[in-house]
Amino acid sequence: MNWIQVLLIAAVIALLVYLLRSRTNAKAKAWVKVGYVLFVVLAVYAILRPDDTTVLANFLGVRRGADLITYALIIAFVFTTLSTYLRFKELELKYARLARAVALEGARTPER
Length: 112
Description:
Number of helices: 4
Distance between the termini: 84 Å
Helix content: over 70%
Strand content: under 5%
Largest sheet: none
Number of domains: 1
Number of strands: 0
């Protein structure tokens, strides 16, 4: 095992620990944590056996394993960006409704 492989595996595991600790609230979905663990397992496998990613890439019609990983990361980035955008839009709508409710609750009729 090369030192770069050890470094990459340590980084991936540290990322997993950070992500799992940051999502310890009750609303964290189990499938998100399963996804993190699956990501770590696949990342460690790809780090230890990089030639297998090329075999999988060739099976899927891609020339190199690095290209396949790049395509997968682009898809993951777009998904994450879109998901974050939609979540922020939902929060913005909730805040606007809350602000309206607070404004209406404290509203008084004008005196003449």
